[in-house]
Amino acid sequence: MAQNSFPSPISVNAEDLACERGGRPIFEGVSFSLSGGEVLAIIGPNGTGKSSLLRMIAGLLFPVAGSVTIKAGTQEEGFLHFLAYGDGLRSVFTVEENLKLWSRIYGGETGGEAIYDALEEVGLAHAMHLPARALSTGQRRRAGLARLVLSKRPVWLLDEPTSGLDRDGEAVLGGLMRTHLDAGGAIIAATHLTLPVPPTRTLELQ
Amino acid sequence: MSAFSAIIGQTVKASFRAGGGALTGLLFFLTVVTVFPFGVGPDLNLLARIGPAVLWIGVLLSLLLGLDRLFGQDREDGALELIMVSGEPLALFVFARAAGYWLAHGLPIVVVAPILGLILNLDALSLAAVTATLLVGSPALAMIGAVGGALTAGLARGGMLAAILVLPLSIPVLIFGVAAVNGAIADPDPFLAPFLILCAFTMFSAVLAPIAGAAALRLGLD
User: What's a Pfam family in this record (chain A) (predicted)?
Assistant: First the structure.
């Protein structure tokens, strides 16, 4: 992939974020900044708010205090990818149908060939016509990765991206992350494991 | 626009796949309406008089059946989060889901209703009036239902609660739907006025329900 395939500079800034869940403070005073080509790893033990922070950045959770600013050019259709436990795969549809739907919603490629190529990249091409209910946990993860391949978006938010993946799957994830970074994209990953790509910044929650 | 049609298409397709519920809804409608002549007895005039209301109530009830599936699955499998992250307006998503729900659950029932009207001893004019009012009125039921579905999306067995929430809100639609049919049959009563109000209900709900549904979904996610 060509250098800087995203038209304008990317930056993600969080200032003094605070989070409450069920009336209980989880974290406060969290700030970070990140630009294109960088990986931020959010680490820390269970229950310290890694996923909550990621959801806050995604706009799914409102911060009690502070703000998140994401600048990624003028792309009207949105600039985030969110990969989490909920993979949005509907069990009655085939893998191809599921990916096609998300591609249409995310403004990505929808052709059968593009979907096949994306699935081949994540090692799931053989399952293209299988219903999603037949997939294992790791295979569902890979299908999620194929979603990221199909529609190009500058900022990836990954929640425990390595969970459920075998060693080969981790290598696939690492390859995709590197390609995305080389293209000028940014990645924020919440994890308690080691990422296949060494993070350029680390944020520890406790 | 591609996202919009994709969601409508997915909703319709899922409704006809295994466990989708569109056929269950249709069969439920057939059963409810068929039970009435057995309960009311062989009084043909009485049947003809209450027939339009029976068909309307049948549609109302069977449109409640699939509400728990409307957004419940999106909540469970993370699709709702992905929609929100995608940057597409959530209200548009709710509208698309409700429209797809009506196409898969509502439209087949509207098509079958005049055939069932025959066993309720409805004449040709009543059949035409019932079908016309159902065609313009049932989308409002689907839209109102979508708000109930959105409110209860995160709850276990939310379908029952959705039905309880939605039924009172649907009463005006039912009243004007049946009033329009009666207006078409009985001479002094007007047809056009209640029919136009019914059309207005559908248009109002098509605008307001997606906004309300989106707010409910956003609230439920926190």
Answer: ABC_tran
